[in-house]
Amino acid sequence: MNELRSKAKELLDSKAVDLFIGYEEGTRLPRPLIATSAEEADRLIFDERCTGNLAVYLTRKDLAAGGRKVGIVASYYAMRSISRLLDENQLREGAVKVFGLTQDGGLTLFEAIADVKQYLQETPAPSRQVEDEWAKEIAEMSAAERWKYWTGELSKCFKCYACRAACPMCYCTRCIVEVNRPQWLQPWAATMSNMEWQLNRVMHMAGRCSDCGACGAACPLGLPVHIIAHKMTEIVRQNFGEPTETGNVLSTFSPNDKENFIG
Amino acid sequence: MADNIYLPHPVTIEKVTQEAPGVRTLRLKFKDEEVARTFEFKAGQFGEYSAFGEGESTFCIASSPTRKGYIECTFREAGKVTSALAKLEEGQTMGFRGPYGNTFPLDEWKGKSLLFVAGGIALPPMRCVIWNALDTRSNFKDISILYGAKSVADLVYKHELREWEERPDVNLLTTVDPGGETPGWKGQVGFVPAVLEKMNPTAENTVAIVCGPPVMIKFTFPVLDKLGFKPENIYTTLENRMKCGVGKCGRCNVGSKYVCKDGPVFSRAQLEALPAEY
Amino acid sequence: MEQKYIPKASLKAWLGKVRDDGRRLYAPVTENGKTSFRRVKSADEISMEHVQTAQSAKGVAFPRTERLFSYVRQPDGDVTLQDYDPSAIPDTVVFGLRPCDAAALKPLSGIFGWDTEDKPFSERMRRVVFVGVSCSRCDAFCFCTSVGGHPGSAEGSDILLTVVGDGEGYLAEIVTDRGRALVEKGGDLFESATGISKEDYLAEVPVRFSVEEVQRKMAGAFEGDIWKSQSARCLGCGACAFVCPACACFDIQENARGSGAGDRIRCWDSCGFSLFTLHTSGHNPRSTQSQRWRQRLLHKFCYMPQRLSVRGCTGCGRCSRACPVDMNLAEHLGEFEHL
Q1: Which fold has domain B113-237?
Q2: Residue A254 lies in a domain
Q3: Lesser CB count within 10 Å: N end or C end of chain C?
Q4: Does residue A31 lie within any of the structural domains?
């Protein structure tokens, strides 16, 4: 903790970074802190409770974009998002310094995103056992049961778009749900339009989603929308492998791409 | 039981006028005879216009309350609803609800000179007042109009501009942005604030009514200052986004003032007391 | 105010009678750890273990999506309109809303009734009876007592119940004639109540700030930096607005069913969304999240008191519980006090 604070202060004081994105103590759990001064950096914490994905702030125009240099603390899955944001040209190499919490609880500074990528390759992803089991349970349902489960859950959605807002990969300035010429999706809350929304959201994440679970964690109604993303990630991995620097399943084409999902 | 404030009056499109590229005027007549007979509004008020199947859009009523039996709106094709409205033809049905908002204080302006300064598609809210003033001409002293657009083609109400030009009791000056003139253009060339400065109207016993894009307003106000217009003698309209038109949907407020209820007409003195949220 | 007592064992019987009358009953139901107002078929489904439901009960009067009227295009191109039909609104009893939610009916009514009556809202309100239940517990997010509320306040409720004794019964305060009519349905189930003071059974909700001072400082802080520092972590979602019992902002949309017919509907919207005030031209009067956060707070704590003589916040704390990044409203309001 002290190590993080002193490093963050040093970076801010020396103007090596313009802002430092980390966590501070919150009401119940740690919450994001965007520190711009050494004084604010004194509130930084980083421990196993900090499981969110702060990479969401890296594409915010008023914060990190526009050539500002940023320090950020990142969980494993947030590192994945950072790596993909670089691949999608949303980040510049050299503009972001990443502090990762390694599995032994130590703090590692990655000066470059290339180093983050290296780390991600060498390090197995933390377990997603809960999500795996949840997805399995749903997959084992009959089609009718599964339909009932998802219509039941998604009928509650009121379209606050917290899932979208919490996702680092949802950086579009105008989301498809808000495009109205033509109007692709019904923007109001109703069971079918809620399902349309979630399916579209998750499809846009195909091969891009870091599987961090931030969408589900953000839902104020506790809807398991991250399980849809988790399942999709698994399907994409099985069928198309891991995304590479040259792109993901949606942005690349190969004559060998499987088409078995087209009914 | 109260009426449903969201239910529009069905109106028939009596006449469509293509004013400029992408800009149309629709003349509307209420289908319900009772509504047609009793409908009243005042200069400056606005309404919500429905293209059924697409939604509603907010525009001022561009015709004068002195011209009975119809209302008109003028709009630029820009979004989903305005594009749908632009596709409607004479004889077809659309919806209107209103009138909403406050009005230009024409009664207070009696005995004064009026200076209208408009840019681009912002002439419609002013056209309503201009005709209102011309139809009650004896109430006012001099009436001057300065109107500018990007190009000659973009000038709206071309027919009426000619009419005003020919009237001896109106002083009309039209201008187009540099590069927007045609070979036969007899008007001014230059941006509205610069032409206004050259025009050099008197501030003496005069009210200035200014409508235009934000950038025009921004540069016109200092010119009016220089000419000696006091903030309480300068009027404009605000165009914040609206949905309900009646102070409920929460979009159009500027500080504690709601453009739909306290506006759309504001004096510059009133604007100066508001935060810059427009 | 007339008071009665109803034993816990009789409560279900009473709610059963209320339902038998053809009314819909909405009450808190717990599912997957979240408690929400649902239409219940039996009083057995009701759960009152929560401090606060995830969503407020406002949807009963201001549904998340609602038809305002319908249109039908005739073969000759003419359009006929079908007005909003209040006769389709069911008579409803909302059981178990907390005093902060009941208090929020006043700001909601203030917005929807401002100069012009909002028929869909008023017709729904006319058909709802609100049975409040006082709070015996609170949590770190509650701040009703800081904004003029109270865990045992009867304001907004038609009947207010307070769990008394060792939880074996409820003190029932009959606030309105509508409430009285509902109590009368229970007949003998309600007993006379004497010498019971609800004050002994209420949660102690600490006062977190002086709201007068907060409002005074906030009104003068429009150009200040505080909005930016508080909202830096705000993600710009609509969770706070949608769970708020007093937020009423809405959008109007068209639900076209093919080209021949459709509905004009309204749906919840939020001042926190970046597109909320975006003009077609691309200009946006509130283009940054800090401007939108400022609007949210000023609307509730300055503009509404000024224009509608009521605050837009009752201290339920839902926005703070729902926020994905812990924008704790009471904490942020407190910061204004020290400006």
Answers
A1: Rossmann fold (3.40.50)
A2: no
A3: N
A4: yes
pLDDT digits (tens, 9 = 90+) for C158-168: 999 999 988 89
Q: C255 vs A156, A185, C69, C181, CA distance in Å?
A: 20, 11, 11, 39
CATH fold of the domain at B9-100: Elongation Factor Tu (Ef-tu); domain 3 (2.40.30)
Phi–psi pair at B157, nearest 5 degrees? 55, 45
Q: Rank A48-52, A239-243, C84-88, C101-105 by mean pLDDT and report only the highest.
A: C101-105
Looking at the domain assignment, is residue A211 inside a domain?
yes
Q: Do A114 and A137 lie in a common domain?
A: no
Interface chains of chain A (3 or more CB pairs under 8 Å): B, C
Where in the sequence is the domain holding A177, given as residue range(s)? 129-240
My answer on whether A107 and A180 are in the same domain is no
Q: What are the chain B neighbours of A180 within 8 Å (beta carbons)?
A: 79-80
Same-domain status, A175 and A233? yes
Residue A252 lies in a domain: no
d(CA A59, CA A91): 8
Partner-chain contact C77 B277, CB within 8 Å: no
Q: Which chains touch B (3 or more CB pairs under 8 A)?
A: A, C
**Cβ–Cβ gap B83/A181 under 8 Å:** yes
Range from A164-168, A245-249, B274-278 that averages highest in pLDDT: A164-168
Q: What is the DSSP string of chain B?
A: ----TTPPEEEEEEEEEEEETTEEEEEEEESSHHHHHH----TT-EEEEEETTTEEEEEE--S-TTSTT-EEEEEE--SHHHHHHHH--TT-EEEEEEEES----TTTTTTSEEEEEEEGGGHHHHHHHHHHHHHTGGG-S-EEEEEEESSTTT-S-HHHHHHHHH-TT-EEEEEE-TT---TT--SEES-HHHHHHHH----TTEEEEEES-HHHHHHHHHHHHHHT--GGGEEEE-----SSSSS-SS-SEETTEETTTT-SEEEHHHHHTS-S--
Residue C262, token pair as written in the block: 């459709």
**Residue A107 pLDDT grade (very low, low, confident, very high; cuts 50, 70, 90):** confident
Provide the pLDDT for residue A1. Answer: 65
Nearest-neighbour CA in chain C from A143: distance (Å): 22
**Cα dist from A151 to A154, A156, C185, whole Å:** 5, 9, 37
Q: What is the pLDDT of residues C109-146, one digit of tens each?
A: 999 999 999 999 999 999 999 999 999 999 999 999 99
Q: Report yes or no: A63 at the C interface, CB cutoff 8 Å.
A: yes
Q: State whether ipTM is beyond 0.90.
A: yes
Question: Tens of pLDDT along B16-74?
Answer: 999 999 999 999 999 999 999 999 999 999 999 999 999 999 999 999 999 999 999 99
Query: Is the per-residue pLDDT at A263 higher than 60?
Result: no
- In this structure, the answer to whether residues A142 and A194 fall within a common structural domain is yes
Distance from the B234 Cα atom to the nearest Cα atom in chain C, whole angstroms: 22
Boundary residue ending a domain (A122, A145, A175): A122
Residues A106 and A31 grouped into a single domain: yes
Number of domains in chain A: 2
Task: State the average pLDDT over residues C234-260.
Answer: 96
Residue B229 in this model has a pLDDT that exceeds 80: yes
pLDDT 10s digits, A61-90: 888 777 799 999 999 999 999 999 999 999
Q: Where are the domains of chain B?
A: 9-100, 113-237
| Together in a domain, A235 and A142 | yes
Per-residue confidence (pLDDT) for residue B1, from 0 to 100: 55
Regarding whether A180 and A133 lie in a shared domain, the answer is: yes
Are A7 and A73 members of one domain?
Answer: yes
Question: Which of B52, B91, B243 is nearest residue C71 as measured by Cβ atoms?
Answer: B52
List the single best residue of A20, A23, A27 to mutate versus C (max C Cβ within 10 A).
A27
Instruction: Tell me which residues of chain A have a C-beta less than 8 Å from any C-beta of chain B.
Output: 180-181, 183
